[in-house]
Amino acid sequence: MKKIVKKIVTAVAVALIPSWGGAAAIASVAPATIEARIDSLLSQMTLREKVWQLNQLNTADFDTLGTAVAQGRVGSIINEVNPEVVNALQRKAVEESRLGIPLVFARDVIHGFNTVFPIPLGQAATWNPSLVEEAARIAAVEASATGIRWTFSPMLDVSRDARWGRIAESAGEDPLLNERMGLAMIRGYQTDNLADPTAMAACAKHFAGYGYSEAGKDYNTTWLPLPLLEDVVLPPFEAAAKAGAATFMTSFNDINGVPSSGNKWLMRDVLRERWGFDGVLISDWNAITEMINHGVAADKKEATLLAAAAGVDIDMEGHSYPDVLEALVAEGRLDEAVIDGLVRNVLRLKFRLGLFENPYVDTSRPSPAFAPAHLAAATRAAEEGTVLLKNTGLLPFGKGVKKIAVVGPMADAPHDQCGTWAPDIRRERSVTPLAALRKLYGDRNVLYAPGLRYTRDRSCEGIAAAVKAAGDADAVLCFVGEEAVMSGEAHSMADLDLKGAQTELIEAVAASGKPVVLVIMAGRPLTIGRERDMADAVLYSFHGGTMAGEALARIISGKANPSGKLPVTMARMTGQYPMYYAHKNTGRPPEWTVELDSIQVEAPQTSTGCTSYYLDAGKEPLYPFGYGLSYTTFEISEPRLSASVMPMSGATLTVECTVTNTGKRAGAETVQLYVRDVVGSLARPVKELKDFAKVWLEPGESRVVSFTLAPSQLAFHGLDGKPVLEPGEFMVWTAGSSAEGTPVSFNLVENKLL
Ligand code: GLC
Question: Is 474 labeled as catalytic in the residue annotation?
């Protein structure tokens, strides 16, 4: 096993930046010191003690787990969030086990800990990386106060199929947006000093390709040709590795038949050698043993050999490593040096976290949970993550709206508004839309009738009361969507229409003749075209977290101006997925389409145009990637280029545009920079996001926004997976969504021709 063995320099530590130039983030304790200390510790460890460092267990009853820890049989623990228990287990590791190697405690802190922020898809909808970084920092402060020093976040799985429930945990369909949000989270969790007691090791997951689970069915197989893998799937992970993400996690899926936990090419050639990653690679839960189910290993020993060869350092609750690694060495099927390499990575993580010097959590400090500043940040994130999809002028409510009917199963759902992967919420701290609206408008002016007991409720019994409330009100707010359990892991859906009798509820209150605001609170885009047509305004909140209600009330009342933009395409029908803006043009792009119902009986075969679209859904999505309205209006000029010709190396191109707030109130617009490679040796996407900038403008204010385009951003990967940069015409847009803007062109030219 080829391992970069760091040259151990003199005892005087030299603060070396790792060879791959990774962020100082994890070089806070001089690497040379760490490597020397690893060598020393490793030389004292028995094979059994080495194997046990690679063993991560779920928390369990204290006696059983405590005994195993005292015997040195555990390297890390997941899901223990009681600081007293954390310290008691840590004392057994440090003071009772033979070598006193500290444990590291891990948890899925995916979008906040006690104070819950919008789900990652909702944070992506803010298009505001600094806000996402702030959210991650707050999550780390709250989680580390209980002893958690490792989170299994950010998830960097580009996903273009909303049937996949875990799209909720992603930053959506675009690799650049996933990269920018993922790096923001890594900075927030890790800070620039991983040994800081409030820092948490980040975990870039699920490496790789999990978002391409076939048919949006979770855990399913993926087929990823090299150009797709290298152009779309890997870039966010490469950025995370080079930014200093302390850990990576393997994905459950196979890529072209090779399960990630046994994928030597991906884990050693790409992650370790090409990207220079020297952190910890952990398997997903039981994913090593599951290679038996995949049918690539006959038993635990074969699965373990595949994982060890691939360089998986830790077996998460799989019980493969602890059960069979020693036997494999004894049988001569595995070299102990391979195990040494895995253990080195685990010890390095613990040194970098400062756990040898500072293993215990300080329980003397008051809990930072729900600090006012944390709740304020969560409110801002929920506000900026809410997307205004439609508004006939009803929003924000004016003085004419005094009595409000609040209906729908999501109006007062403190657990469900927090979304998936929120195990540490306290539901009594959630501010629901109903509570916030009552506070804002006064109890007597808010007429509440949920209509349904929960989103899947098929009973229409409560709808009459909702209709009555609508009749007695000036306007209706209808909160629908998904319960938390309907998105996230193992929660794929074959049909994305609203469940239960939600549509019937919306129809009934719309029939009252009162103006209706539809507010969808969900973990993914839903196919809400019919319901959208029944409403005067539509707000989309990707499960907004603890303060979702506060944020929505502030938007509805006009105290806040929505600025969210879709991080994922909203299809008209489920069958259109996978659907995404960066699609190929095909040989038959539809210039026009025919509506199914307008086709004459016995119409001729070719009467529908013979181009690429659906007869029953057309060619467009319901709403495109990057789309979102505001209470004001903006104008974005055509791009202005610093040159019409760009050399293939040695120069960059500046792209400028002017964005103006042409409306009557302050607001934020996200200017998006898209590029198209018009002709390539492979068919290229019709558009690709290359940068974005969110700007806040007063009424009438204009701002010049400037982007820099480098040749490397115009490259792609050939069929062999190798990077390719080709001369030719490129189109450039600066726009407020992927479906707007007037392009200008430039030519990328070989230097010798200039
Ligand atoms: C789960 C998930 C992964 C999570 C891990 C630990 O199955 O796939 O995202 O971090 O197990 O809970």
Answer: no
